Amino acid sequence: MENRGMNERIKSLRKQSVEAVPHIYIERAKLITDAYKMYEGTVSVPELRALAFKHFMENRSLCINDHELIVGEKGDSPQAAPTFPELCCHTLEDMHVMDSRDIIFFKVNDNDRKIQEEEIIPFWEKRALRSKMLNNLGEEWKKCYGAGIFTEFMEQRGPGHTVGGEVFYRKGFLDLKAEVETQINALDFINDKEALRRKQELEAMKICCDAIIIYAERYAKYAKELAEKESDPVRKAELLQIAQNCLVVPAHAPETYYQALQMYWFVHIGVTTELNPWDAFSPGRLDQHLYPFYKNDTAKGILDDTKALELLECLWVKFNNQPAPPKVGITLKESSTYTDFANINTGGIAPDGSDGVNEVSYLILDCMDEMRLLQPSSNVQISKKTPQKFLKRACEISRRGWGQPAFYNTESIVQELLNAGKTLEDARRGGTSGCVETGAFGNEAYILTGYLNLPKIVELTIYNGFDKVSNQQLGPKTGDAKDFKTYGEFFEAYKKQVEYFVNIKIEGNNIIEKIYAEYMPVPFLSLVTNGCIKSGKDYNAGGAKYNTNYIQGVGIGTITDSLAAIKYNVFDNKKFSMEELQKALDANFEGYEEIHHLVTNKTPKYGNDDDYADDIMKSVFDLYRGMVVGRPNVKGGKYGINMLPTTCHVYFGEVMMASPNGRKAHLPVSEGISPEKGADVKGPTAVIKSCSKMDHLATGGTLLNQKFTPSVVEGDLGLENMANLIRAYFNMDGHHIQFNVIDRKVLIDAQKYPENYKDLIVRVAGYSDHFHNLSKVLQDEIIGRTEQSFS
Amino acid sequence: MEHLLLDIQKYSIHNGEGIRTTIFFKGCPLKCKWCHNPESQSYRAEIMYNKEKCVSCMRCLMKCPQKGIVEKDGFYPVPRDKCDACATCVDFCIYGAREKAGRLYSVDEVIKEIEKDKMFYEQSNGGVTLSGGEVMTQDINFILQILKRCDRMGYNVNIDTCGYSSFERFEKILPYVDTFLYDIKHIDPDKHRLLTGKDNVLILDNLKKLNDKNGKIHIRIPVIEGVNSDDENINGIADFIKDMNITMVSLLPYHAIGQGKYDRIDMEYEGTDFSAPGEERMLEIKNIFERKNIPVKIGG
Q1: Which of A66, A87, A195, A485 shows the greatest Cβ crowding within 10 Å of its Cβ?
Q2: Where are the annotated coiled coils located (chain A) (predicted)?
Q3: What pTM value is reported for the model?
């Protein structure tokens, strides 16, 4: 395996990160359980959560890896994964599965298992939040969830998709604590009916300030101890510097570039061990946050580019050391990866609207190019003002084939945020996180609630709401499709089905969110999310300045081509009847080769800039958008939609029979807004044109994968054309595009001989992953994606 | 007005500057032995038959309205004498073994396809390339209509030509064309006839006249080892163009991509012995042009 890194320090840290074995870190579960035993019933819920967090920070094990400059791990060492039994209490069977599964495993040792069995399970089995949720959700919801109509993000992980803003680069936690105290003193117990709740939440925040400061002080002490024992004078000085940093941050605002990075990292560890929110806790616009420190330090002569880059590379290793929290069941299927989706946006624009590309932006590109790690997801925001040099440098890295950086359209992000009611300045401070999800960084709780299986709903429409896979009536009886005289009638029935399932999903969301607000506040995350201190309300209870829920639509390519196949062949050209189509689908097209040929090869398809198919895509999208966007959630905010799949397109395909577009039963559906595999035959400009007919600005993010053969993007000309494609797509309001530039032959060989390709990284959905860590079906799906070439 | 086209290709990045849409006309007066699009040579639509994909399901045989398809050695070749390229067999060939080369397009249809990618032309300084087959031997009114509409919309147009056509035609389209991608295959008229079926007198004469009329010219030379890669030929070409106002010479090393397609239209490939010159020789050839101060590059 290639040993990357700018110098020996980084090489050895990176090696440790890549080679460490992912394992369960049981200490958190144990300490949290002890704290609940100590405090539960004696204090309010927010204070209980805060005291548990503090107990953990006071007693947890510390880790300073050899040579490292930034300290703090979620667990006891790299690749350790804490568990969160208060949310999802793993059974011994779960532990066994995690330990023994082939991919995305977590090793569990005998001691872990013993603690789980003797201390964790007895205490949490019945009280974990997941049980509370399942007790409160209706039968319809459970049926739909079980049949794969939608997934549920919050059953094993906390609400998240939240990204850090600039607050903790300007204020220390002592400053924040003082702000909280001011708020407490200003509470009006005469007129404000919620004053007590606010006080409890604010008191909890205060405890969390103490907790994170204590954690850093323990690190300062530990680093000093190590320094005293250290014989190498260079390392000794480094350890003393670490100790000094930990006494400044997080208690106080960072004074230097180095401390700014350490500050961010302490906050990251705080947020991701307080609970396990989705998508870790990204630093968001890292180049914007670091730039003032960089400028200041370089002017003073205490920082040069080599040192600045080295510290970035140290941070990159830190991200890569933290695997996503262990998942099981459907949640594992929808997000089958170690990646925890911390997603760094580089470039874009500054809050005043000027070009945001600065020296640190280029350093970050150098860092991602050198490091080539799974984590963090490294991306660039491209605006009209972005210099061509920056765009081309990003293209140059992207065409190396491992999928990073992905490209985001700043103007679209800003417009999407404005459409969703953000102020212009907040919008300009925003970006995308997770895979492609738009958010007002530092100001918004934007919660992805689950994926919706759009092609499955067409399947149900064909069979009058009956699901032949799970063998039960799932949707409303909207009529036997055989009796429909027009495509309009079919689409009308589909509309009723979508409406029904969207309502069930939203009902479920409302219940789950209330449960989180009640039982699982996150006072530490609330401290660093604008709005929570001021409102005295928790992040999980609508305390943030903005509160958005997303439902992510999956399979737009498959559903569009399926509806096009029905409209074109059954109604417009009468090539075969609905009854014949049903029989063909029932038989998985076996014995119906001619129908399969017609729908596969002789029907207009999405992805070819053909209005026949693309108009259908628009009708599906507009309907979905109309049903979701703008609906109220229970936190005082609104619903939005994204079009992205992570790995859910594989799971959603599994629960489906054959589809009218010729896709065979149980194979993956299309991913993101990309066309169905093999459907796009007119080249990349046609794909981009089709995709741009969707109204991206009405979403909170869309995901487009483009696969190129390496020869298409080689040389200066290839680079130029890649940059031009991106600019043109963005001129048409496209939200995001990413590239896989790997020869198909390489992927096929890697599937056969995984041992030879241990460090082959490919783009999956909004993230990259090791090819050998993907399921066989997902590997096949990526190999099968249309490769755009030229002649 | 409708015209037979072979294909309209999007994201064409090797037929002039930037991202382009290339319109391939069908039919060519030359028969170059190395031609990589043999299905572009005939001025008529034709059915291509790929034996490798055929599973002998016999749907073509049963569905052919001419009843012309007859089994031969387990395969179902196209009855070239009877076939009018109605493509019924193509529609029913579920294994994709049969394809139709050539389809009629109206001017509006062509323009609609061109307009689809206008965002990309703007971004990349690209545009439209009319190619073939040989565009200059096709219906000039059809071509003029396309050119005039592109001109009005501000799309940059390149003409990819072998030069074998009356100069009158070049003159007619000259005002609407940005660049001529002009092929020179060999400087010797006899060898040219041997390799392409026609001598090069008209071609070189047109090139001179085009230069005199201030046409923007980008020369393209397919380079085949031992066939036209010798010093004598290269020097001959270079000397012929050195006093002209040439924007660029592209040296295109031979490739065998089109070889497999010959069998599909029952043609024989005469270029099995052809190969590209080595990298070193390509650089030497490039050097010959450079020494004469002619702008040159390897590749499109």
Answers
A1: A87
A2: none
A3: 0.93
Closest CA in chain A for residue B12:
A790
User: Taking the CB of residue B167, how many other CB atoms lie within 10 A of it?
Assistant: 18
Angle at CA of residue A510, ends A700 and A460, nearest 5°:
75
DSSP assignment of A163-175: B--SHHHH--HHH
pLDDT in tens, A99-130: 998 889 999 999 999 999 999 999 999 999 99
The answer to whether B9 contacts A593, with C-beta atoms less than 8 Å apart, is no
Q: Please tell me whether residues B283 and B138 are part of one structural domain.
A: yes
Would you state the pLDDT for residue A1? 59
CB-neighbour burial class of residue A306 (10 A; exposed 0-12, middle 13-18, buried 19+):
exposed
In this complex, do A597 and B19 lie within 8 Å of one another by their Cβ atoms?
no
Q: Do A685 and B10 count as a contact with CB atoms less than 8 A apart?
A: yes
Closest CA to A134 of A146, A125, A142: A142
Shared domain check, B111 and B50: no
Determine, for residues B116 and A596 on separate chains, whether the beta-carbon distance falls below 8 Å: no
Do B56 and B112 lie in one domain? The reply is no
How many domains are there within chain B? 2
Tell me how far apart the alpha carbons of residues A640 and A615 are, in angstroms, rounded to a whole number. Answer: 22
Are B60 and B195 in a shared domain? no
Same domain as B162, residue B147: yes
B137 in the same domain as B11 = yes
B78 and B109 assigned to the same domain: no
Identify the band that residue A790 occupies on the pLDDT scale cut at 50, 70 and 90: very low
| Percent of chain A whose predicted confidence (pLDDT) is above 70 | 99
Residue B216 burial (C-beta neighbours within 10 Å; 0-12, 13-18, 19+): middle
Catalytic residues of A: 435, 437
Instruction: Domain of residue B56: give its range.
Output: 46-101
Chain A residues touching residue B92 (CB < 8 angstroms): 594
Cβ-nearest to B123 among A602, A727, A788: A727
**Most B-contacting residue of A391, A681, A685, A707 (CB-CB within 10 A), to test interface:** A685
Partners of A609 on chain B (C-beta within 8 Å) are 10, 116
